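Pilot study result, target chain (466 residues):
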Amino acid sequence: MQALTSQVTRLAPTFTAVSDAIWSTPELCYAEHRSVAAQIDALAAQGFAITRNIAGLDTAFTADWGTDGPVIAFLGEFDALPGLSQQAGLATPLAVEDGGNGHGCGHNLLGAASMLAASALAARLRDTGIAARVRYYGCPAEEGGWGKVRMVAAGAFDDAQVGIGWHPGTYNAVRARATLAVANRRYRFTGRAAHAAMSPHLGRSALDAVELMNVGANYLREHMPQEARLHYATTDAGGSAPNVVQARAESLYMIRAPELDDLHALIARVDDVARGAALMTGTQVEIIGEGGAANVLPNAALCVVMHQAMLALGTLNFARDEIAFAQAIRDSLGDTAAADRRAQTETDALLPQGHGRLPLHSGLRCFSGRIEQGTGSTDVGDVSWQIPVVEAALATWAVGTPSHTWQAVAQGRSSAAHRAMIRAANVMAHTALTLIQQPDAIAQAQDELARRRGGRPYVPVLPDAA
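Predicted structure:
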């Protein structure tokens, strides 16, 4: 453990610089060209062989080290979010560029830590002669573009044995939770324009169809799985003139369900609601699938291995100025009572009651072996249907910080975020080395994945244009 930690420490400045470079050039999904170039340069310098254009995607790549042994997959992301430009180190909102992009989900840190883990592990394997193949997956477009889905469908993970990742957050723990499967679907209605006062009988309102679809979706909500979600936006209301019957209108739905097969069934029902709305209004509807992601199949066997690594690494101790900045961020958030109650009352594997939990979490949430049901979605789910996957969460942000906010962006290149990023790399590298040295643990994780799938086929939610 000490020798591997030394490799992480040695390489940390290189990949911290990569993280900051990606933070400074935030790029949206499938346009992460500078971010990819920075990663490829850093990994090539560590002796990794680069394969570009995975699944035909300009910003998807893999980096491989080693030729024998199990393939250990480290998952990396690096896309930003629109409209979240924010200067670093400030606890007040101030954009770098008005309307610009920002790393509100911490993906600059996410990819950099995974690269650091892969590079440190490769260096340690080189020193010891232990056989394994280390592979970093540069995965674009997690924020709504679902890049990993297309990589999985192209067979990029077919020869990997296990996947390891992490995500920035407000606490330290293994991410022992499932997510919701999700699909993005656009419903484009076409009617016929007419004068709304003089000849309304000649018109067929596409906007009426959008509104009736929403009414039908509201009734459907009572009759779908409890954990499922429907949310929508009217992306085209057909114009601004009320005296014209709107000949076009459009809505975009996100459909979520706890399991992939539940999702496909729910998609069919929402599609029927749209067709019914078109029938009632005498309009036509075009249904456009814009992709989606499977639910994460969590792996308790791997969570145990990762939790043990996090226990062994101990508390994540922050400096006084880091704590002060975290408190200033918390002061900007308003009500954090609910987050504080959980932080202060839940049991911690490393901290006494109430100590070291605010404003930055320095301990480790206990892992009981139970898997929780989460409400978000991620394309990591599609990887988890192919190979066993485990992820950690590390406290890169102050307790209570919501992701996808300017506050998350402001903390994205702080020394506290760097400290947590380096710890994440340590956790992932140690988890990987344990699995390489204990092949039975990989076999146990693969058996658990087979049980969780239960013979169900993997049917990806690909965009219609793919």
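One observation from the pilot: The radius of gyration is 24 Å. A full batch analysis is planned for the follow-on phase.
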